[in-house]
Amino acid sequence: MLKRAQMYCKKSNSSCEEAISFLEENGVIVSVRDMDKNPLTRRELHRILGYQNPKYYLDMTSPIYSKKKLDIKLPPREELLEMIVEHPELLRQPIIQSGRLMTIGVGKKQLAEMFQISTSDNGSGKNKKTHGVRNK
User: What CA–CA distance (Å, rounded) separates 32 from 53?
Assistant: First the structure.
């Protein structure tokens, strides 16, 4: 069965490019929505993020996060979603969905688990596919 992912990110973000490369190298078909060109609406944010804890998807290193004092107190959910629409840099990236599964940010281990990708690390820091093919 083909594995597919929907990714929401800014293409200029190196973490997004890293995630796209990792998934495609491992046979996952990735559809990318560039949030610079096509920002998410409040309704889409609500659908994608569900009722997750905001600390999971907010970028706490964003200058807006501190400026809006979100480190002190978060506004009600709907107000927070409106704030994200106004300041998309508040979202951690990339957001990767496959069916009902979702992960935010890049972690090859998380992506490998999410897409059931078998990898090994030979110490070089690069993952190598191990799809049952033996090295000769």
Answer: 24
19-56 confidence digits (pLDDT tens): 999 999 999 999 999 999 999 999 999 999 988 899 89
- Give φ, ψ of 56 to 5 degrees: -75, -35
Across the chain, what does the average pLDDT equal? 85
pTM exceeds 0.70? yes
Cis peptide before 88 (omega within 30 of 0): no
Q: What is the rounded distance in angstroms from the CA atom of residue 25 to the CA atom of residue 1?
A: 16
CA distances from 7 to 74, 126, 128 (A): 26, 22, 23
Residue 11 tokens, joined: 């293409």
Q: Rounded CA gap, 118 and 10, in Å?
A: 27
Cα-flanking dihedrals φ and ψ of residue 4, to 5°?
A: -130, 150
Residue of 100, 107, 105, 108 lying closest to 127 (CA atoms): 108
Cα separations (Å) of 70 from 74, 76, 121?
5, 11, 38
Integer Cα distance of 51 and 114 in angstroms = 20
- The model's pLDDT over 69-89, given as tens digits with 9 standing for 90+, comes to 999 999 999 999 999 999 999
